[in-house]
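## retry 2 of 3
previous attempt timed out at serialization; input unchanged, resubmitting
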Amino acid sequence: MSKDTPPARDKKAAFKRVLLKLSGEALAGNDGYGINTEVIQTIAHDVKDAVDLGVEIGIVIGGGNIFRGVAASAKGMDRASSDYMGMLATCINALALQDSLEKLNIDTRVQSAIKMEQISEPYIRRKAMRHLEKGRVVIFAAGTGNPYFTTDTAASLRAMEIGAELILKATKVDGIYDKDPEVHKDAVMFSELRYIDVLNKDLKVMDATAVSLSMDNKLPIITFNLGTQGNIKRVLQGDKIGTRIDS
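## retry succeeded, writing output
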């Protein structure tokens, strides 16, 4: 590039407000359990890049790196009790992510569906939207606040409540495949899918309730690899990565 050539400018964001769904397992990285500080710092930097684009971001975070209610229920624990324990795990992850974001000077609020005044705000839809309008990142913890509902369902619900244009579903693989790419070398990735295809093929990228909610409200979902740094920004700029689910 010659000295007279101006530097390339970042593309503008293709979306104004989005909901990012992070699994708890993603925060564990290769440790398999707990919170990997390097991973959560990388996620925070990616979220900062998105905020710098002017995108308003809500985040729903899971708790599977600490406790999985469904797994505990399968071993004989009461399902409602185990799900509440899983909700508490999401709050731990939300506070950790908030800390990483605020270290990057990103104003962040945690709103919990279960009241915990000492550590978070209660979830109030209008207050969440006001935070987003002011450029703050809002992390929605404790799922929907009800047992028997996953954080995937919470992501679809919160996305619709705040008027998000898109759900970003961060995963450990590049998109949605016809079979597990970590097991099958010949697995084929889909670039686009319809909601009904996800349900009929039982592709398990999100639970059926979450996909059905998104389908009923025509809310697109893009799944992508969180492990590739910069992918959140690329999706928001309209680059075709991962798998897009819509009507």
